[in-house]
Design brief:
The protein is mainly α and about 250 residues long. It is built from eight helices and no strands. The protein is globular, with a radius of gyration of 19 Å. It has one domain.
């Protein structure tokens, strides 16, 4: 009973801290979106889109935090990833706002900052002793959301065709395949190849946004080929191990 009560108390403290962290970051997103609305050629819908995008990511945090993060502290690494989510939301608000040079430049700045912080949060989690399955998944889902947003903005800019959307949709197709095929739900081992492909994809889309055609399409195309290779390798690994386990 005491152990269960202690665990319940820990979850309550953690959830309270998570709510505070998400709420504070949401306020920052709202302020930044309001400032961007005045500085950029965007419509009145930009701020609601940015705030709404962050609220979706904040809901993910609050739903999964207590079940997958076995600490009372929210942790500095998760705070950094939350900031990455805020930058991703500010970038997402640009969807539907046109493809001008100022829009592309702002997307490159916010997306670039989110990518730069991606090289920090994992190291901070390990250094602080607060690495957890929640933190790893939060980081991965933030990466996936950023790639999807950048791919949509690339298409919106007119620098590539709709094929660039494949980069943003691959992660979600993979998840849906897992819902339909049990052998696709097996946990994958850590992979430097997978991490590299994701990082290259984010950096390439940012570079492509800032570049002019045909360089932009070439950069995005090469990165997409690497990402497709990585997902194919993971799918083949999962299928091979499912066959090996058959009686």
């Amino acid at each position: 009973m005491k152990i269960e009560r202690a665990a319940s108390d820990r979850r309550a403290v953690l959830l309270r801290r998570g709510v505070l962290a998400v709420g504070a970051t949401l306020a920052l997103v709202a302020l930044a979106a309001a400032a961007a609305t005045r500085a950029l050629p965007v419509g009145p819908g930009y701020a609601p889109k940015a705030v709404g995008a962050f609220m979706l990511m904040g809901m993910f945090v609050l739903v999964h935090l207590t079940a997958q993060h076995p600490f009372e502290r929210f942790g500095p690494a998760n705070a950094i990833t939350l900031l990455r989510a805020a930058l991703t939301a500010l970038t997402a608000g640009l969807v539907g706002e046109g493809g001008g040079a100022e829009i592309a430049a702002f997307a490159a700045v916010t997306g670039g900052a989110a990518v730069a912080l991606d090289f920090v949060d994992g190291r901070v989690a390990r250094a602080s002793g607060l690495a957890s399955p929640f933190g790893a998944r939060f980081d991965m889902e933030t990466d996936a959301a950023l790639v999807l947003v950048l791919a949509v903005l690339m298409w919106q800019s007119g620098k590539t065709g709709p094929w660039v959307l494949i980069a943003g949709l691959l992660r979600y197709v993979f998840v849906l395949a897992g819902a339909a095929l049990p052998w696709m739900r097996r946990a994958l081992p850590p992979s430097a190849r997978r991490r590299t492909a994701a990082a290259v994809q984010m950096v390439a889309l940012i570079v492509a946004l800032a570049a002019a055609p045909p360089v932009s399409a070439a950069v995005a195309g090469v990165a997409l080929a690497l990402l497709c290779y990585s997902f194919t390798a993971d799918t083949l690994w999962l299928h091979r191990h499912s066959v090996e386990e058959l009686p």
